[in-house]
Design a protein that fits this description.
It contains 3 helices and 14 strands. By secondary structure, it is α+β, with helices and mostly antiparallel strands. The chain has one domain: q2cbj1_9rhob like domain (Jelly Rolls). The strands form 3 sheets. It has an 8-stranded antiparallel β-sheet.
Length: 257
């Protein structure tokens, strides 16, 4: 079952402050948990479904993690107790939640299932900019929403970083210090701006498998000219080249590359 009524009175505000970083028009920096977004039975059905589609898992940008796009109206959903419009219905609830948290209309970018196996982790990163807040090819990802499907794993904390007062400015070594780290509650949906105002990551998975559903959101009304779209396309090509090199290093056993 997906949450029926989303009520702000149930929100857990982990952070709620004016945003003083970034240049993408995000006025409020909120990290919000919406508890009981789905129930345990539904979460287990989602996990069962995505694991049945094992050939659809693919590498993503984080070590030890795999992602999967979710096709609507897949007849296979019924085999796992999910109706054919389940993922469309869930995305609409995600949208409603993000709009309530930030008091503005949004539109979806991408969404996917994600799993993290033992050893997997995500180093500190921004979803839409470099570490100086300069927007990049992914600046459409203004907000991120993450639905946590299970809790039977160790490690895998969601952590947030602040810039260290002293660090090597040439190499960026030790630039980020963790100020907040916690294990997200299963069945909760967490929403926050994922840019430089909330540099974040995932600690290493120590046992079990961590399952989530991740969605990214942009402002509903925003438009981008063709020159900007072309620039992003070229930037993304370079990112994919760098990621391929990184994966080669991972294959050699250098997971911190």
């Amino acid at each position: 079952m997906i949450i029926d009524q989303i009520n702000k009175s149930t929100f857990n505000y982990i952070k709620d402050e004016e945003n003083t970083k970034g240049v993408l028009g995000i006025t409020h920096n909120r990290i919000v948990e919406i508890p009981n977004f789905i129930d345990a039975e539904t979460a287990n059905s989602i996990i069962s479904y995505v694991e049945s589609k094992g050939e659809d898992w693919g590498d993503i940008a984080f070590y030890g993690s795999l992602g999967m796009g979710l096709a609507p109206n897949d007849p296979g959903l019924a085999e796992h107790g999910l109706n054919g419009t389940f993922f469309d219905d869930l995305r609409e609830k995600f949208k409603e939640a993000v709009e309530l948290v930030f008091d503005r209309k949004v539109r979806p970018n991408t969404s996917h299932a994600q799993k993290w196996d033992v050893g997997g982790f995500a180093a500190p990163h921004s979803d839409n900019s470099d570490f100086d807040g300069v927007p990049n090819a992914f600046e459409i990802n203004k907000y991120v929403g993450i639905l946590y499907l299970n809790g039977d794993y160790e490690g895998g904390d969601l952590f947030f970083c602040k810039e260290a007062e002293v660090y090597d400015k040439e190499t960026n070594s030790n630039r980020w210090e963790t100020y907040l780290s916690f294990k997200p509650n299963a069945f909760s949906y967490y929403v926050f701006p994922g840019g430089v105002e909330n540099v974040h990551g995932v600690s290493e998975i120590l046992s079990g498998t961590r399952y989530t559903m991740v969605s990214f959101w942009d402002y509903e009304e925003i438009e981008y000219d063709q020159a900007t779209l072309d620039k992003w396309k070229e930037e993304e090509k370079q990112v994919r080249i760098e990621q391929a090199i990184q994966k080669e290093e991972w294959a050699k056993g250098n997971k911190y590359a």
